[in-house]
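Human: My hope is that you can spare some time for a protein that puzzles me. I am handing you a single protein, as its sequence and its fold in token form. Could you go through the record with me and say what the backbone is doing? Take your time, and here it is.
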Amino acid sequence: MPWNKIIIGILAFFVILFAVDAYKERRHAKNLLAANERLLNENRSLQANLKQTAQTAQQIANRQEVQFTQQQPTFVDRRVYFRKNWDQFITIHHGDYKTGFLGGIKDLKISISNQTEYQLDNVEIEVRYLRSKGDVFKTERYTLKNIREQSTASVKAADSRKGMKVMVRLISITSQAMNFCWSYDKKAAAGDEDPFKCS
């Protein structure tokens, strides 16, 4: 009789162990399923976000392409386009220069950028050397020739024994290839839609 109770007790112990293990396994499987479901949901959300981002990027690209196409002149009117908008494509600037303790300008370089599609035959520029109060000490003029399309040309300006700063400006530009004749004192006639076309 005591042996029967012991055997039953042992069997009951193993049954309880088995039940506990089975419960742990079910709980672990349930946790794994929940984690997998969460990962799947996150993946779906990421895919949706990526799709939306791709659509937005495509819309922006399409809009920019339309704008670019609208802004680009046709082949037959490119010269007119550059003549009318020349100041967006032809620019002048000066680099850093040295000034003396009591004034004077040294190592001044002037650059002309030609971002049109046509060569500039002659570009005349003016350099003003200014005293500290802003009045002009002296003025120099330079002419740069044959500045190729999509390029930059430079000229070294003369040193000045006086002056604290400089001002540079364009005086005139001519381009046979672009049929372009511009000068700072050439006034556009009222109603003239292409005032800088060479006459």
Summary: The first helix runs from residue 2 to 71. The first strand starts at residue 90 and ends at 94. The chain has two domains: 1-72, 77-183.
